[in-house]
């Protein structure tokens, strides 16, 4: 498609009226910049209502990890310390500091973190109003019809993602607003050179708010410069292009200088990039149809907060695209230049599960949907109003809940600071995402900086060095590394939930909750190399720290009396790889040996330690597990230890034995699950008591057209039976006599299994029965 030029630039000649009435900016300053003389009320009202509706519900606290980075940047700008995170957002911080000074004067009683949250959220609300007016100018510049301009602006304003973004203390909406102002001015530059120069300058500044805005401003600037090529390459290079560079240099030079020079800034930037590329699932790193499907879903469905609303928008947009191709190719071409490069960049190179990154895709989708609604003829206003109303119904209630719900991390810290006056902890540890909240407001607690990805090693070091007083750990519920600490020691926990944690528009926020653990000296704790969860297994694999590389170590509290333990694992090799011989030692004395072959694949073992470990140096005994390849001509036998616990013999132990599949994990949500097969066995060891088995899982009807029959058996007898036809939580009591008759084996059977390899055309040969998010076994009397 060709973007046409309506006139040649002129330095001083006023632009002929091109925009329909009612599209002047609601502020005098921006009206003068964009040189619009029409009545401001239609779009001005939309922007004013948007701003007014947001003011009562602005963020009551900092929340996402990045918002805390921004708040710390307001205090002490230092991208090398992620204050804020690279590339640094210096223009955002500069405007934030100006607004912070004003807000501090108006609300002097607010705490430092509260005033920072209010400042950054107010910045977003104002930016949302400006973005709407700038968008209207962009649309008016490319469209001869008034209705699609107004309806598109209204749909964007009401869209759930845009709505909640105006409440958050984040840079997304300020960055988009500045980029849209730049685009509007650049388009104005098709007839006025001064607008082109100013638009280029604003585009350079916008990159100092969010670097990704270059995908919104640079392609459009390049096309308009190409259109204006007749004025000469010298003028284009020395004026518009120089303006863009000047807008970028005005923040880039101080940024680099404040980061310790070019080398210091590049180190910080490479550190951020390394984290992103190491742990983010991007389409360009996994160019598969499945990953593309997820990226499209996360980009074009989740921002609308409802599958039904997203489907309506998609249908309207599809019709609108067809209409634009047939009747309005010129407008479509300009808008594709303005927004499609960002869409492509987002799909390929960003973490699409972080839905706020999809914010700049909304204008193009909304315009296409508005064009599609035009197909209704006289009923078009009804259709457009229905889209706006539906969006408000979906988006406003979460916004209200958000404005009334301080983030769980700050709720937990507030409660903990009061409790510390009664029972102060010896030390405070946390996951890295929660540690940023502690940095923002530690409440005087004795905080220890956590090693990123290895946060559980903070408490481990404390206990190994002889600490025996109670400690606190503030955990991100999506992290699972605390499984490397005795579960009995983690029983004293308060869980703080965010009222809006499950909202699609907030997908990707970090963290979405906080668990406050009060931990005394544990019965055991583990160092690196154990794979008790998929997360810790991934860390062990990345560090080559598993038992096939070196002994993995757990520390067991010395105590008199008999102990027993359970250990389970998996051979990770391929057919033909050598078997692995394991050794388990306690205080250097080998207590057990066994061999695991690829054909066996899994093992589960219980071991009695009748003499306990009362003697020895220090409060903890050293337990090690190591494996060696049996033969194999020097080849390694890769293995992982997936299950472990050690307790006094009067405590119940259980493990997942035959028929269970590997535990799986979704990092963005923290959700863990394990699939059963046709017949899956839980083995238990402990005192002869009745047991309660709790199963919580996903509806089987996601995979089958009718509910399966599920049985729990022990000792050859059916203890319970049910037919789950929805998500379920099912509790079963297994009598002590049946547990004993079955020699500690409790069996879960299902008469239907899903075959992913057959259904999905993959090499997955598993037989999948029930997808269980929780399978808990404990004495029925507990």
Explain what you see.
The protein is of the alpha+beta class and 782 residues long. It has four domains: 376 residues, no CATH class; 112 residues, no CATH class; 127 residues, Jelly Rolls (Sandwich), CATH 2.60.120; 131 residues, Jelly Rolls. 42% of the residues lie in helices and 18% in strands. A hairpin with a 2-residue loop joins β18 and β19. α6 crosses α16 and α9 runs antiparallel to α10.
Offer a concise description of the structure.
Helices cover 42% and strands 18% of the residues. It is α+β, with helices and mostly antiparallel strands and 782 residues long. The longest helix has 31 residues, at 112-142.
For the structure shown, list the relevant keywords:
782 residues, alpha+beta, Jelly Rolls, 5-stranded antiparallel sheet, 23 helices, 22 strands
From the N-terminal CA to the C-terminal CA, the straight-line distance is 71 Å
Helix content: 40-55%
Describe the sheet with the most strands.
5 strands, antiparallel
Task: Tell me the fraction of residues in β-strands, as a range.
Answer: 15-25%
Structural domain tally? 4
Q: Biggest sheet, strands in spatial order?
A: 5-6-11-8-9
SS-based structural class?
Answer: alpha+beta
Individual helix count: 23
Number of strands: 22
On the 0 to 100 scale, the average pLDDT is: 91
Provide the gyration radius in Å: 30 Å
Low-confidence stretches: 1-39
Coarse morphology: globular
């Amino acid at each position: 498609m060709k973007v046409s030029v309506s006139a040649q630039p002129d330095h001083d000649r006023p632009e002929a009226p091109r925009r329909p009435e009612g599209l002047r900016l609601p502020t005098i300053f921006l009206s003068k910049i964009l040189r619009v003389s029409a009545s401001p009320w239609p779009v001005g009202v939309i922007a004013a209502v948007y701003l007014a509706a947001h003011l009562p519900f602005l963020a009551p606290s900092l929340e996402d990890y990045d918002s805390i980075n921004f708040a710390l940047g307001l205090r002490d700008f230092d991208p090398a310390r992620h204050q804020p995170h690279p590339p640094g957002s210096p223009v955002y911080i500069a405007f934030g500091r100006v607004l912070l000074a004003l807000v501090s004067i108006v609300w002097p009683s607010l705490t430092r973190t509260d005033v920072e949250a209010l400042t950054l959220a107010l910045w977003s609300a104002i930016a949302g109003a400006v973005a709407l007016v700038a968008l209207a100018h962009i649309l008016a510049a490319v469209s001869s019809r008034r209705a699609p301009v107004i309806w598109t602006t209204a749909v964007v304003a009401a869209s759930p993602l845009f709505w909640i973004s105006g409440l958050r203390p984040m840079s997304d909406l300020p960055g988009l607003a500045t980029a849209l102002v730049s685009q509007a001015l650049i388009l104005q530059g098709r007839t006025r050179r001064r607008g082109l120069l100013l638009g280029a300058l604003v585009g350079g500044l916008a990159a100092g708010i969010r670097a990704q805005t270059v995908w919104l401003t640079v392609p459009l600037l390049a096309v308009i410069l190409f259109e204006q090529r007749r004025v000469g390459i010298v003028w284009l290079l020395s004026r518009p292009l120089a303006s863009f560079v000047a807008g970028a240099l005005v923040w880039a030079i101080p940024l680099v200088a404040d980061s310790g020079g070019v080398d210091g800034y590049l180190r910080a930037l490479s550190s951020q990039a390394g984290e992103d590329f190491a742990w983010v699932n991007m389409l360009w790193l996994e160019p598969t149809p499945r990953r593309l499907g997820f990226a499209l879903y996360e980009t074009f469905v989740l921002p609308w907060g409802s599958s039904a609303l997203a489907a309506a928008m998609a249908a309207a947009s599809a019709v609108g695209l067809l209409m634009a191709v047939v009747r309005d190719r010129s407008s479509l071409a300009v808008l594709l230049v303005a927004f499609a490069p960002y869409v492509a960049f987002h799909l390929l190179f960003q973490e699409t599960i972080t839905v706020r990154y999809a914010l700049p895709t909304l204008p193009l989708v909304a315009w296409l949907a508005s064009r599609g609604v035009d197909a209704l003829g006289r009923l078009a206003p009804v259709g457009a109003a229905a889209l706006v109303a539906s969006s408000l119904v979906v988006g406003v209630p979460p916004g209200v809940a958000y404005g009334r719900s301080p983030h769980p991390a700050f709720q937990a810290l507030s409660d903990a600071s009061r409790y510390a006056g009664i029972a102060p902890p010896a030390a405070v540890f946390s996951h890295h995402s929660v540690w940023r909240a502690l940095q923002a407001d530690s409440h005087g607690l004795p905080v220890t900086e956590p090693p990123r990805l290895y946060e559980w090693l903070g408490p481990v070091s404390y206990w190994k060095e002889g600490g025996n007083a109670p400690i606190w750990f503030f955990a991100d519920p999506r992290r699972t590394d605390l499984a490397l600490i005795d579960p009995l020691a983690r029983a004293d926990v308060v869980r703080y939930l965010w009222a809006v944690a499950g909202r699609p528009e907030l997908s990707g926020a970090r963290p979405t909750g906080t668990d406050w653990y009060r931990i005394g000296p544990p019965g055991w704790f583990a160092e690196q190399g154990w794979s008790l969860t998929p997360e810790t297994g991934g860390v062990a694999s990345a560090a080559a720290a598993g038992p096939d590389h070196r002994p993995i170590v757990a520390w067991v509290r010395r105590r008199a009396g008999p102990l027993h333990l359970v250990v389970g694992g998996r051979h990770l090799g391929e057919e033909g790889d050598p078997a692995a011989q394991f050794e388990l030692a306690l205080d250097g004395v080998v207590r057990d040996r066994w061999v695991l072959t690829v054909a066996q694949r899994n093992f589960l073992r219980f071991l009695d330690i009748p003499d306990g470990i009362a003697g020895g140096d220090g409060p903890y005994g050293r337990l090690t597990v190591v494996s060696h390849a049996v033969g194999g001509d020097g080849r390694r036998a890769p293995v992982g230890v997936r299950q472990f616990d050690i307790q006094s013999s009067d405590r119940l132990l259980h493990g997942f034995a035959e028929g269970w599949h590997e535990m799986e994990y979704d990092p963005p949500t923290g959700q863990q699950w394990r699939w059963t097969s046709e017949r899956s066995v839980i083995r238990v060891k402990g005192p002869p008591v009745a047991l309660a088995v709790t199963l919580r899982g996903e509806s089987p009807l996601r995979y089958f057209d009718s509910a399966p029959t599920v049985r729990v058996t022990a000792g050859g007898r059916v203890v319970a039976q049910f037919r789950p036809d929805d998500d379920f939580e099912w509790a079963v009591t297994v009598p002590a006599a049946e547990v004993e008759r079955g020699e500690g084996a409790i069996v879960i059977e299902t008469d239907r299994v899903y075959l992913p390899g057959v259904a999905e055309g993959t090499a997955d040969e598993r037989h999948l029965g029930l997808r269980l998010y929780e399978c808990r076994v404990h004495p029925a009397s507990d």
